[in-house]
Amino acid sequence: MTGRHSAGVPILRLGDVLVTGLLDELDDRSAMGFVDELTERIAREAATGVLIDISRLEIIDSFVARTLSELTTTARLLGARVIVAGMRPPVAITLVELGLKLHGVETALNAEAGMAALGWYRTNRLGEATRGDDAS
Predict the structure, then answer these.
(1) CA spacing 20 to 30 A to 7: which of 31, 91, 129, 130?
(2) C-beta atoms surrounding 9 within 10 Å
(3) Where is the STAS domain (predicted)?
(4) Residue 85 forms beta bridges with which residues?
(5) What pTM value is reported for the model?
(6) Interior angle at CA 71, CA 11 and CA 3, nearest 5
(7) CA-closest candidate to residue 115, choices 56, 52, 37
(8) Which secondary structure element, helix H or strand E, spans residue 36, and what is its range?
């Protein structure tokens, strides 16, 4: 394990899934460090899924869109499925208005729905498994 935490973005492991997020404050250099660190962790820990929560992201530009697309492709080559969760409506509108496409990027309305898509289920107080995207 490397001692550096280059992007300053926490990456948590839940079983075979890595969970992380993006913030507005992430500059281009930090974003590249984040991508490097995340891909290293996917390979080293044999992660099969990655959830990237972008619910705190207020704006998106072409660099971030391209970075998410490239990260998804790289992760897929390493055997992991990536889901980007929590996209705010203004971010989605900006992507459409600018003609930016997130090729191959799967999305989920929120982190819970993203985790359910990756095979994670929450349990109720009785210990019964329920799908994370169920309304019940």
Answers:
(1) 91
(2) 19
(3) 7-118
(4) 53, 108
(5) 0.82
(6) 35
(7) 52
(8) helix 28-45
Q: Closest Cα to residue 10, out of 40, 39, 34?
A: 34
Tokens encoding 80? 């992991």
Residue ranges of the chain with pLDDT lower than 70? 1-7, 25, 122-136
Using DSSP, state whether 17 is helix, strand or coil.
strand
What pLDDT score does 129 carry? 59
Kindly list the distances between the CA atom of residue 87 and the CA atoms of 1, 18, 29, 48, 109, in Å, as whole numbers in the listed order. 31, 18, 22, 22, 7
Residue 121, strand partner residues: 131
- End-to-end alpha-carbon separation of the chain, Å? 41
- Here the tokens at position 7 are 């992007």
Residue 126 pairs with which residues in a beta bridge?
none
Do residues 36 and 50 touch, judged by C-beta distance below 8 A?
no
What pairs with residue 14 in β-bridges? 17
pLDDT tens column, 79-103:
999 999 999 999 999 999 989 888 8
* Alpha-carbon dihedral 47, 81, 129, 125, rounded to 10 degrees: 70
